[in-house]
Structure formats: C-alpha cells, structure tokens
C-alpha cells in the first residue's frame, strides 16, 4: 500500500524513473520506488502523464497512483517519442487536443512549455511553447461557450 523512497548505494546502479529514465529529482520531484523495487517514477512525471488518474483504493500504490496503472503508462510511453529529446517515454502531452507534442516532464521545462498545476483541484496541465500563449485566451472562451450552450438547451 505504501511506497518507499530510497536510492541504492554502492557499486549497484542507481534507480531511474520509468518515464524519463533519469535521476533528475530536483526538476521532476521525488523518485518513488515501489515496495517490491520493480517500479520507480518521479512524482511530477506521474502527475502530468496524460493517461494516469490518481487511485483512492487500498491496493498497492505509488505516490497515489495504482502501481498497475503506472506500469501500463510506462509501457504506453515506450511508443511515444519526446518532441524535444526524441527519446521514448514522453507520456506528457500538450493539453491542446489537436496538438501532438509530447514530453518528458524535464523536457517540457527545458522547452519552455507552460506548466499549470492546481493540486487542490487535481489539475495538472502542460501547454507546449506554441500553445502556451493561446491557453489563457481559450480557457475563458471555452468556459463561456459551455455555459452559453447549457443556457440555450434549457430554453428549448
């Protein structure tokens, strides 16, 4: 149920994140390792991954995510190449639905993507540098369009 946070010492190699394949704890958050030592992932790499949803079950979890779901997302990432470094594991996509840019968390930072997080609401979004300026404008328009649509439907 709980996850341990540790790093191996001595001549054995240091554990790396299953998503970004790095030890960039300062940029990507704490490296979390499952109790059975089979899964390791940075907290931010999991939070921003497109297909991961936090788990509230009593099953074994890693940073609030089901270990099974984390493993599935790491596997999905093997098919996704990063738009910046061109390496696999880029499970973080631009939140503009028509955009195909994908990143590792640290690559999104280096590419000057806009990172938006509201932990109290469970919102973790990334906008690539091409869409970060339009993200501000489209949110307001999108919400007003939705409310206008609901008002119109109620009048019918």
UniProtKB/TrEMBL annotation:
As one GO molecular function, the record gives: zinc ion binding
One Pfam entry name: zf-HC5HC2H
Q: Which domain of life is it from?
A: Eukaryota
The record's Gene Ontology cellular component field reads: nucleolus; nucleoplasm
Q: Which stretches make up the PHD-type domain?
A: 14-132
Task: Recite the UniProt keywords alphabetically.
Answer: Metal-binding, Zinc, Zinc-finger
Please state what the protein is called. Answer: PHD finger protein 6
Which organism's genome codes for this protein?
A: Homo sapiens (Human)
């Amino acid at each position: 149920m709980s996850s341990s946070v540790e790093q191996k010492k001595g001549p054995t190699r240091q554990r790396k994140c299953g998503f970004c394949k790095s030890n960039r704890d300062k940029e990507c958050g704490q490296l979390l390792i499952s109790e059975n030592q089979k899964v390791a992932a940075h907290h931010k790499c999991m939070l921003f991954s497109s297909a991961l949803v936090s788990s509230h079950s009593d099953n074994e979890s890693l940073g609030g995510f089901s270990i099974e779901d984390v493993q599935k997302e790491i596997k999905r990432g093997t098919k996704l190449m990063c738009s910046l470094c061109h390496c696999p594991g880029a499970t973080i996509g631009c939140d503009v639905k028509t955009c195909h840019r994908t990143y590792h968390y640290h690559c999104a930072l280096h590419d000057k993507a806009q990172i938006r997080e509201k932990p109290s609401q469970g919102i973790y979004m990334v906008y690539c540098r091409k869409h970060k300026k339009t993200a501000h404008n489209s949110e307001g328009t999108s919400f007003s369009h939705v409310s206008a649509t609901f008002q119109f439907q109620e009048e019918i």
